[in-house]
């Protein structure tokens, strides 16, 4: 009789260990068995079934949570893909300078459009390595398409030739695409309305370097209150493109000192052109 109890006890201990391993394995936990440890007794088969059922429910709950998380991740990835696709479609809608110029011609974002006869988008090579930016189209010439007057354009051409560039090989644009009235500088609000157009031009041209001319234009593009003296000879960035500030061509006439400063600026720029 005593032997039978031992045998039965041994069977119960063995059964309890098997169940313990099943519980842990069901939860994804690796098991090991130390024979020196005393194992807990299982009171009855009903308790065993209840425990197994509970483990099964936990396992199913974990699976459901995992499936839910996967669904959320998939939805998030889908939303990101749709967002990128939308951006791509928007970019493809303006995939060349001609289409961009047409869009600028139709622009009515600020009051400048009510005063213009012709918007001035930009001019020059569409494969330019150097992108030149001024504040606004010149308003002292009868040519509605002109960005610079004759004298300033000649001076800019001379400036560029010192580093081996022809005027026709660069691209010239302005912060605003319409002439402000009464020869005034463009307002910040007007420049903001044209931000997307300038950004689109830079992305389409893909220059090595941007040269921004004049203190006011430099402050606006670089969002800075610093003087041109402080902004010069420093490398800035716009849309990931290196930017260097310098004097506007109209400031060079009769000023040898200013011309020397511009020469120093051009030397800096030439180092960043591939």
TrEMBL record:
Uracil-DNA glycosylase-like domain mapped to chain residues: 122-266
Biased composition (Polar residues): 63-78
GO process terms (BP): DNA repair
Composition bias, Basic and acidic residues: 79-89
Region (Disordered): 59-92
Keywords, comma-separated and alphabetical: 4Fe-4S, DNA damage, DNA repair, Hydrolase, Iron, Iron-sulfur, Metal-binding
Entry keyword Coiled coil: no
InterPro entries (UniProt xref): UDG_Type-4/5, Uracil-DNA_glycosylase-like, Uracil-DNA_glycosylase-like_sf
Keyword set includes Zinc: no
Name of one Pfam family that matches: UDG
A GO molecular function held by the record: 4 iron, 4 sulfur cluster binding
SUPFAM superfamilies: Uracil-DNA glycosylase-like
Xref: PANTHER family: TYPE-4 URACIL-DNA GLYCOSYLASE, TYPE-5 URACIL-DNA GLYCOSYLASE
Protein's name according to its UniProt entry: Uracil-DNA glycosylase-like domain-containing protein
């Amino acid at each position: 009789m005593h032997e039978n109890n031992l045998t039965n006890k041994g069977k119960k201990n063995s059964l309890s260990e098997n169940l313990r391993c099943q519980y842990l394995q069901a939860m994804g936990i690796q098991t090991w068995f130390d024979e020196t440890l005393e194992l807990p007794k299982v009171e009855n088969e009903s308790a065993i079934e209840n425990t197994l059922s509970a483990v099964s429910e936990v396992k199913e709950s974990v699976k459901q949570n995992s499936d839910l998380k996967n669904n959320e991740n998939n939805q998030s990835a889908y939303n990101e893909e749709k967002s990128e696709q939308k951006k791509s479609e928007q970019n493809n809608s303006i995939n060349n300078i001609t289409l961009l110029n047409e869009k600028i011609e139709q622009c009515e974002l600020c009051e400048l459009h009510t005063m213009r006869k012709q918007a001035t988008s930009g001019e020059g090579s569409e494969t330019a390595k150097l992108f030149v930016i001024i504040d606004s189209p010149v308003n002292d010439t009868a040519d509605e398409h002109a960005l610079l007057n004759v004298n300033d354009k000649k001076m800019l051409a001379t400036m560029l030739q010192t580093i081996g560039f022809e005027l026709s090989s660069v691209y010239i644009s302005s912060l605003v695409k319409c002439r402000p009235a009464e020869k005034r500088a463009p307002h910040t609000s007007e420049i903001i309305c044209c931000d997307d157009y300038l950004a689109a031009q830079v992305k389409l041209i893909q220059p090595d370097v941007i040269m921004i001319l004049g203190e006011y234009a430099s402050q606006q593009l670089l969002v800075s209150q610093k003087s041109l003296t402080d902004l010069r000879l420093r490398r800035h960035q716009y849309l990931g493109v290196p930017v260097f500030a310098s004097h506007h061509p109209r400031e060079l006439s009769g000023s040898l000192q200013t011309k020397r400063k511009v020469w120093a600026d051009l030397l800096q720029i030439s180092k960043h052109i591939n």
